[in-house]
Amino acid sequence: MRFSPDDVVCRVALNLGSVRTAEEALRAWLPLVSELRPVSTQFEEAGPDGLRRGYLADLLVVLPPPAGTTAGGGTAHDRLLAQVGDLARRLGLDPAAFEVDEDGLGGVLNVKDAQDASPYGAYLVLALTGADPLNPEGQQADYDDPGEDLL
User: Fold this and answer.
1) DSSP secondary structure code for residue 141 in this structure
2) Could you read off the pLDDT of 97-136 as tens digits, one per residue?
3) Has residue 141 got a pLDDT over 50?
4) Which of 36, 80, 85 is nearest to 58 (CA)?
5) If DSSP codes are grouped into helix, strand and coil, which group holds residue 12?
6) pLDDT at 135
7) How far apart are CA 80 and CA 105, in angstroms?
8) Residues with Cβ < 8 Å from 84, sequence gap 6 or more?
9) What is the pLDDT of residue 13?
10) Cβ(25)–Cβ(43) under 8 Å?
11) Which residues have CB under 8 Å from 108's CB, separation 6+?
């Protein structure tokens, strides 16, 4: 998928651990999905042996430059912080927890404490200017590694 160099592209990870059915989870997420209008969504039940319970969602959200601003207006770093800050507030998260990468073009907002979680169960926001944070080169990724080193 191609994005404008001015777009802030975010991966939003959600987990509703207290819901019992997929219908409950989807009903809880519907207002957020309707508001954010993600270009891609993935919903699944958390695995019984995983770190999470209930239901999980992954939203790929594209945040174009705000209306009325010219492309390239302000620095990419400023646009990133403004767009991610707005998204964090919509999710019920603290925008100050967003950690910008060394290039200033992306970053992560990781909710470390369950008490800080949003009403939608948001626990991770990855952001990158102009590209998908999980596939910055634009190609489809194939991950055979189970990721045990990340646990």
Assistant:
1) P
2) 999 999 889 999 998 765 556 789 999 999 999 999 998 8
3) no
4) 36
5) strand
6) 87
7) 7
8) 8, 10, 63, 95, 98, 107, 109, 125, 127
9) 94
10) yes
11) 98, 99, 101, 124, 125, 126, 127
